[in-house]
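Section handout 9: paired folding examples.
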Amino acid sequence: MKLSVTRQLYAGFAIPLLLIFGIAFFAYKNLANQTREQSWVQHTYGVIQQIDDIRQQYRDMRIAKRAYLTSNDVHALTTYKTTLEKMYSEMKTLEQMVRDNAVQLKRVDSLHANVATLEDYWHVLGITPAKYNRDMQDSLTHVEEPAANMIRSLFASLTNAEEKLLAARNQ
C-alpha cells in the first residue's frame, strides 16, 4: 500500500518529534537524578560540618571546665555551661540530619550518652576550684580518659562514615 504525500510528510515529522521527546525525557530524568545526588552531596557536607562544629564545642567545653577548676574564673564556668548547652543542641540537630542512616544515628546517640556520662562524672565528683590540686588533676585525667577516648573515636567514626558516603556520592 502506497502512502499519500500528506501521510509521508506526517511520518517524516512524527519520527523526529518522537526522537526529540525521547531525548528530552531522558535528559529530564538525568537532570532530576543529578539534582537529587547533588542534594545528597550537600547534605553530607552539612553533616561533616556539623560533626566538626560539635567536635570543636567538645574541645571548648573541656578546656573551659579545666580553666575554671585551675583558675576559679567564673567566666570559664559560664563558657563551660553555655558550650555544653550548645553542644547538646547541635547533637540534636545532627541526630535529625543522620536519621536516614541507622548506624550513624546509633553513633550520635552513643556520642550524646558518652558526653552526658562525662558531664555526670564531673558533677558527681563535686570538684570545686578550692579542692582542685595536682593529684586531683591526675586522678581526674586518668578517670576521664576512657570516656574522652570513646568520644574522640565516635567523632572519627562519624566523620569517616560521612566521608565514605561523600566519596560514593561524588562518583
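Moving on to protein 2 of 2.
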Amino acid sequence: MRIFQFPIALIPAFFVLTFSSCDSPSSEVSATFDANAATIAHVFADFQAEDDHFFTHFADDAYWAGTSLNAPDSIALADVAPKYRELWGKYDYTLTKEANFLPGVNPVSKETDGSVRGYFRWNITKAATDSTEQKSVNVKVYESFDFNAEGKIVWTQVYANMQAAYAALED
C-alpha cells in the first residue's frame, strides 16, 4: 500500500506545474494586449486633439485596410496622413462613449495575440459658418489594430459608413 502514497502526493505538484506553465504565455499575451490597448487610447486622444503625434503610434510601414467603396486593398501611412490632416481641418471628432478595447485574435490560430479591436461610437461635427449651421453625425465604428514587436501599429481596419457620414455633413 505504501507504493500508492508517493504518486498521490505528486498529483498536486503535477497540477501546479502543468497549469502554471500554461499561464506564462497567456500572461505575456495579456500584458501585450494591455500595452497595445493603452497605445490605442493615446491614438484616440491624439486623433480627437487633431495632433500630428497621432502618426507616431504607427510604424513607418503601416497600412490601413481599404474598406470603403472602391478603395484599394491597402493604403499606406504616407497616403493616409494627408487625408487625415485634411479631415481634421474640416471636422471635429469626439469619441462619445468610453472605449471598450477587446483582445484580437490571430486569423490563422484563432488565439489571442495582443492585437486590439473594438466597437466605438464617434461624433463628427462640421462647424457653423456665416451661411450654414453646425452639423453633427454619430457613427458606429468597428476598428482593429495589429502591432509589431516594438508596439507600433502596422495594420488597421476601420469599418463604418464614413462616406454617408461625410455626405450628410456636406448636404
